[in-house]
Amino acid sequence: QIFNQHNAEALNLEQAFYRMAQTEPNLDHDVSWLLLPSYWAKMVVALISFLCFANSYDGDFVFDDSEAIINNKDLRAETPLGDLWYHDFWGSKLSSNTSHKSYRPLTVLTFRINYLFAGGFYPVGFHVINIILHCTISVLMVDVFSILLGGLQFSNKGRRLNLAPKSSLLAALLFAVHPVHTECVAGIVGRADLLCALFFLLSFLGYCKAFRENKEGHTFSVFWVLVSVILGAIAMLCKEQGITILGLNAVFDALVINKINLLDLIQKLLHKDKSLENAGLLRKGLLFRITLLMSGGASILYIRWRIMGTGPPAFTDVDNPASFADSLFVRVINYNYYYSLNAWLLLCPWWLCFDWSMGCIPLIKSVSDWRIIALAALWFCLIGLICQALCSEDSHKRRILTLGLGFLIIPFLPASNLFFRVGFVIAERVIYLPSIGYCILFTYGFSLLSKQAKKKKILAVAVLGILLINVMRCALRSSQWRSEEQLFRSALSVCPLNAKVHYNVGKNLADKGNQSAAIKYYREAVRLNPKYVHAMNNLGNILKERNELHEAEELLSLAVQIQPDFAAAWMNLGIVQNSLRRFEEAEQSYWTAIKHRKKYPDCYYNLGRLYADLNRHIDALNAWRNATVLKPEHSLAWNNMIILLDNTGNLAQAEAVGREALELIPNDHSLMFSLANVLGKSQKYKESEALFLKAIKANPNAASYHGNLAVLYHRWGNLDLAKKHYEVSLKLDPMAPGTKENYNLLRRKLEQLQKKGG
């Protein structure tokens, strides 16, 4: 009984404290929305966020996933873990001139763990982790929005109170189902944004923990402030935007903890008012906490700068054309237009695209361009909100609007081109964190409308309709991110002027063997961007394979003229020139390619083929040896060395090279076949037979393998086995050169033996 009485008294005290906290204006008062206990609210948010993106779990590696994951050596066990701290997100050294300086070692570490646990590049595990992360973040949003919308209040037991349960649930649902988040969740590379957001929110919640009430009055914990700084640093090591949480924590401290009126503070600063001390700056330790945040942030940025170096990222005008414009007016106008488009994606996320560069958004070059209206609309809304945030007499309104604008703008600043050039025009993934601010403003606007509306249920149904539409849009967009073909084709209707979209559709078709359709899209990419050297290179390659050599040469020559250090185009130009029997030009093109890319095994291989055609055997062998040094698993180079040495009568050397190659690539059946031929000529029949049989087991439908094994048996005197393999070879390829003649010789010999035996 005593225990129950104690619990009842404690509950009464908590309820009394809750009623005291409710004396502030409350968003939930006029909101016609579902009221759920905190646990159930989080369960609902988790379930709905899961349903939005669940169909992406078995998607492929798409778009940037290839470079960041499949081709990233930092994921493999043989790469030392320490290298992750000196490489960028794509696995390049930060000191390299070609590095994008995207320093996200913790994100790469999670990819590496995924790779090791899966035992290879299996995308399911990567996708599942992304979905789980988004669900976790959406659940945390319930707590974050309850603080941002309802304020920070604690019970007498030190437990945080949710003063806006309905509003925080609505805002969390808006965040969970926003279609603009699809790129982050369904695209594996979006892991960087998800991890950054996770630690960003944990940093904010950790900072809030520093202000628990205790018996001695309102105080704060330095420990939790420092924990918040550390979590902010971890967020930044996942993605650059993470550092902005320290600034937002300071804004939250000033507005919510110290209840500072920004307009009043600005006026006092301008007039050098001596009453500043009474504004709460010193009394509640705000300056001390801001000093801790600023010191922590400065230390983090300094360490990052020391690791990364001072060199700027390497971007081109096709990545971000506005940033390369000569006119300051053009740059400013277009940057602001990009901001308006980002805002529109938050308001109406219907037209989504994996890439917004390369002509997708033509530059505004004159004030007569009708798109200026979008800028005017953006700034009209922003200025209106800022005026209300600063000048409203309602302190509750000032606080929510300022926090909403803060969470909308501050996390977006690293992507704004204001401090440094970024490598994109618009990137949906960078709106993941700013969408928090959008959800705050939307929910506050809904509460104001609910207050004025007579039929609140109709308004609630309209918002529910928006949520359902967003859920369906997320599911549709997630399905488009499951494969490159669907993803690239979905962009054709959104960005028909984007050369990269046409290039990627063409590349996807070419990879599937549909060269005719690929040519069409490559030509359109070159038409839209006449300087698109990668499209020229790929189109030139296809034309080369179709023996349209003169047009291929024109395209590749233009590509290297536009980008003189484009090594792949130089090599392909050399191949075309070799096919046109212009050997000196081909040799020069190959050496130019090697000059621009020192470690280029494929180019050395093709150079070796050129020298072999010119009967420069020693040069050919040296070129192929260079290819195998740079790439020990280069099967074609090893094979050509064995064949050339075999054809020139250097059987001992050919055998040595063949054995060396098989030690490095033990399961390569073409190498087994080449070495078996050499051993047969050296009369090492038993060993030759074993290699032939092993090669046939690996590739049973190769007519030449059966034909050459038959020749071995023919020489060896095993005529029945020779006959058997000649017949298999002719069945697989009736036109196999030499096989029919050898088979006829064998049959005549067998007939003669039968006559003698008779």
Automatic annotation (TrEMBL):
Keywords: Endoplasmic reticulum, Membrane, Repeat, TPR repeat, Transferase, Transmembrane, Transmembrane helix. The chain crosses the membrane at residues 39-57, 131-151, 188-208, 220-237, 286-305, 372-391, 403-424, 430-449, 458-476. The keyword Iron-sulfur does not apply. TPR repeats lie at residues 499-532, 533-566, 601-634, 703-736. Its EC number is 2.4.1.109. The keyword DNA-binding does not apply. GO terms for molecular function: dolichyl-phosphate-mannose-protein mannosyltransferase activity. One of its GO terms (cellular component) is membrane. It is found in: Endoplasmic reticulum; Membrane. GO terms for biological process: endoplasmic reticulum unfolded protein response. It holds the Pfam family TMTC_DUF1736. Pathway: Protein modification; protein glycosylation. It is an enzyme of class 2 (transferase). It is a multi-pass membrane protein. Residues 311-383 form the DUF1736 domain. Gene3D superfamilies: Tetratricopeptide repeat domain. Its main location: endoplasmic reticulum. Belongs to the TMTC family. This is dolichyl-phosphate-mannose--protein mannosyltransferase. It comes from Furnarius figulus.
